[in-house]
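Figure S7 source data.
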Amino acid sequence: MRIHVINPNTTASMTDKIGACASRVAAGNTQIHVSQPDSGPVSIESHFDEAISAVGVLEEIRRGEAMGMDAYIIACFGDPGLLAARELTRAPVIGIAEAGFHLSTLISTRFSVVTTLQRTAIIAEHLLDQYGFRDHCRRVRATDLPVLELENPAGNAYQALLEECRQAKDNDGIGAIVLGCGGMADLTERLTLDLGMPVIEGVSAAVKLAESLVLLGLGTSKHGDLAFPRPKPFVGRFADWGN
Ligand code: 5HY
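Tokens for the predicted 5HY complex:
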């Protein structure tokens, strides 16, 4: 099978990191295709960034459909454009936030999220409500690190992340931690060892969920609100989306 992993931001080093993480956990007969939009924010750290990046996600989904992808992963913790993306395909589309939430509830009764900037915590909280996980999550914590600090080898991102995870482990009454950024995908094993508790990140979680759905013959339902969009003209910059 072929899984298209989309990094919704436009930072190639993060796209490469996300692709490597996905490939590392993929089954032997799974091919990982990773991409990022041609245009959009270099990092997604606000409602505005999410809205702009969602268009790029949809353009990548359209490209994936032309390539015959079997599943899609939206590798940004805001899951930008998730439901709109599902309208465009019969394949499964999984966001890394929902993947992380689902897996954490299978191994713990309560989890906390540790993400980047404090201002993005509300985005994770909105998703907890939207997906029905609010009661399982004790707290959405933030390191207040800008997303691209995760790409700075000379920075202290790992230590800041480890310290916030330690606070969560010691104070939140949880059994697992969900990492709140696609750019943290390469830190899971190290954090798990340093913390001595399960740390889940959404890219690898989403790859295994996508493989399971494809193997079970399950894809996005076209009965109801996730049916293909009604044909209509589009004008202006989106004219080529019309039919
Ligand atoms: C992400 N932003 O996963 C989110 C993290 C966040 O560019 N990739 C980004 O803070 O929402």
